[in-house]
Amino acid sequence: MNKNQLVNYARQITGATTEETQKHLNAILDAITYALKNDDDVTLVGFGSFKVKERKEKQGTNPSSGKKMTIPSKNVVYFKPGKKMEEALNYK
């Protein structure tokens, strides 16, 4: 599901216009990004939590040349699904 499909799905549920739904979704995504950028975790009870962790520098190999290289450290976002989502995904 891409962003437009998500907006259309939410629009059908809420009855809001496409423009309103896009505006709300963008605001939520901006708020999540802002919080993560400012070292805050984001927890949506039942859905899951987002957390920024630092991936340490490591040694790797360039696949095209085969030469050894250093991959620099960087911040990455981790997502841990909440209990409701876990149950929904593992329901058979």
Structural summary, described in words:
With 92 residues, the protein is an alpha+beta fold. Helix content is 43%, strand content 29%. The protein is built from 3 helices and 5 strands, in the order H-H-E-E-E-E-E-H. It has helices spanning 3-14, 18-37, 83-90; strands at residues 42-44, 48-55, 58-61, 68-71, 74-81. Helix 1 (3-14) crosses helix 2 (18-37). The radius of gyration is 19 Å and the shape is elongated.
Could you give a quick summary of the protein structure above?
With 92 residues, the chain is α+β, with helices and mostly antiparallel strands.
Helices, strands, pairings?
Layout: H1 3-14, H2 18-37, E1 42-44, E2 48-55, E3 58-61, E4 68-71, E5 74-81, H3 83-90
Antiparallel strand pairs: 1-2, 2-5, 3-4
Helix pairs in contact: 1-2
